[in-house]
Each structure stands twice: as structure tokens, then as C-alpha cells.
Amino acid sequence: MRYRAPLLPAKFLYSSHCARDCFQTGSGPGPFPEDEMHCTCRVHVASDDLHHSVDGFVNAPPALPLRTCGNPATPQSLHSIPLNGNIGRWYKAARGRALLKHFACHSKHPKPSDQNRSHPAAMSAPQAKRVKTNDDAPYELIYWPGIPGRGELVRVLFEEAGVPYTDTAKTEGNKAAPLVLGYMDAGNTGDATNPPVFAPPVLKHGSLTINQVPNILLYLAPKLGLAGADSDGDGLFHLNEIVLTLLDGFVNEIHETHHPVATSLTYEEQKPEAKKRAKAFTDERLPKFLGYVQRVLDAKTSGDGPWLYGGKLAYADLVLFQCLDGTKYAFPKSVGKLQESGKYDGVFKLYDAVKERPNIKKYLESDRRVPYSSGIWRHYPELEE
Ligand SMILES: N[C@@H](CCC(=O)N[C@@H](CS)C(=O)NCC(=O)O)C(=O)O
Fold it and tell me: Which stretches make up the GST C-terminal domain (predicted)?
């Protein structure tokens, strides 16, 4: 799927970017070709194909040396390409659609601060490996198409914050599944700065590629203003512990109610075990997890208002909403009974409060919200009998 270096003339492997950031790359031995410093551009990718091609460009040389001067320049978020007419060729070869942003022409000479680093061999490996992101880079969610799944736990943050993101699950032309499979492929060893991921959801932001839902949420929450009142302090660890517990109960354990033996088997192939597991879940675990959420709400730390922590809406509240929404879909009778018990009123009040948030409300009514079907939250009526 990747666009490889041979399509690019060798000189493309040398480039430089010295605008807000100072960024130079080179390939092979020999001095950095300072006389070849060019106007550069920052490329934000708006297509899967091109995305891979850009990665391919950056990763093509086995040990592409990279150096930065400590500014947010990164190998994958800044793609420095000589503006000598070849962009069109590169672009065409990539068969994609790119949003060229931050187009800038610069000096043909290196900045004074670059002089002592004009040789690729002088570049330190740790610097080359450092991952940095550009805050203005687009957010890209990579997830399976057709199910809300764990991708939804990430989407609700973007939707509440009103921050644009691309969502591969919504791309046309059946591209999403092959893309996800590409990430999960046994031959995928990541790239120069990112280890391989195991499974979706995956978040790409600038040069950074990460997976694991709680990890993605922890990364996004402060950037989207959803890290609570105490966003610079230890509060984030409290929010994280709440979120991890929600994911244990309302995502992982729920998944095991219909797939208690193996994910590789169909539900039908493990129905008897699923029945037992679902009963234990609805009788014991579901009330226990709801009870935990209610205790968090009853605690002094929840502060004023319906929120879980610190008297302010934070990402944990959005996660709770999605978790409970999925659980209501999967086990409507059980959740209904527990709601009627009146023991978890705070939990349901919080659920309603999130549901009524203007941006969430709009999202739920939009076609961006994928209906439940298979995936984590499934409804098998026999599992509640
Ligand atoms: N703990 C991981 C679980 C990831 C996961 O299981 N993703 C599912 C989709 S929701 C998947 O495709 N898994 C493939 C696999 O486990 O082989 C997370 O929170 O992101």
C-alpha cells in the first residue's frame, strides 16, 4: 500500500525546512547539500492513499537522518519538498488529494544555528527518534466501518469539543477495512518514530500514531479542553482511573458476554458460555460497576453539578455516556430494572446531561453516529432471559 522511494528522484530525500521549525533531512553519506536548500511546504494529508505515500516518502530511506532544532518539526508532519515543479509529479504519483498548508519560501542558506549540524552523520539518533506533533495538524481516527465500537469512545470527545477530525470508518469506497487491516498486519513494524499498533482505534496526529482507547483519550483530553478543571495537575490521573474502570466494565466485560471463549469464534459457536457469562454480568458485574460510578458521583471529589470529577464536564463523563448508551442497547431490560431501583440516579442523570449537550445532541441526530449492530455492544434478547 505504501508508495516507495524509487518513485522519487534521489534528491528528494534531501530537504530542508526552516520556517517556524528547523528541520533537515538527508540520505546516505556525505555532507548535507546546503546549496540544495529549497522552498518548502507543509503537507497535510487528506486521503488515505496519500497518507501512506507520505509515510512512504519519509520512511523510504532505511535510516533517514533527521535533525531538528528543538521546534515542533517532525518527520511525518512536515514533509519538505523542493518546490521546483516536482510537487505535481509527486502528488500525481501518490494518486491522492492533499491539503497544502503553510506554504512558505525560505532562504537558500541554512540558519546560523544550523551551521554546526550540517552533516547528517552529526545528527544524534535520540533526536531523530523523538516524536513531536504539530498542534495544527489534523486529527485522524482510524477505525472499522459499520459499527460504533471503541471508535465511538474517541468520536464523542471530538464531537463535544467541536473539533474537526477525519474518520476512516466514514470514507467512501470500502477503503476503511483494508486500511485498518494494514495497521494490524503482522508485517507492519510501524515507522521511524512510532511502534506498530495492535488494533484499532488508532489516532494519527501529525507525526504521532497511537492506539489503545484510554491512551488516545489521555492524549486528546487536554488538547480538546476535556481534562477537567485541574487539567495541569494530578486530576488527569483520577479521570484516567475512572475511565479505565468504565472501559473494564462497560466495554471489555460486555464484549465477553457475547464472546466469552474466543473472538475468532462466532457468537453462535459460544452461545451456551455466552448465556452463563451474560447472566453473571447482568446479575453481579453490571450493578457493581454502576454502583462504583454512583460512588464516584457521591464522593466529595465530584464537586458541583452532574459530573464525575471536579465539578466540570470532562472526558470521563463522555466515556460514561457512551458506555451506558451501549450497555442500554445490549441489555435494555437489565439496565431498565437497575434504573428503576433508584440506586443509581446520579448515573442516569449524568447520562441525560451529556445527551443534552448541544454538540452531542447534534451528533446523535446526525448520520455520523453509526447505529449499533455488531461490535462491542450487541443485543441478543436471549442473553437477558
Ligand atoms: N484495549 C484495546 C482493544 C482494541 C481492540 O480490541 N480493538 C478491536 C476493535 S474494537 C479490534 O479490532 N481488535 C482486533 C484484535 O484484537 O485482534 C483498546 O482499548 O483500544
Answer: 240-373
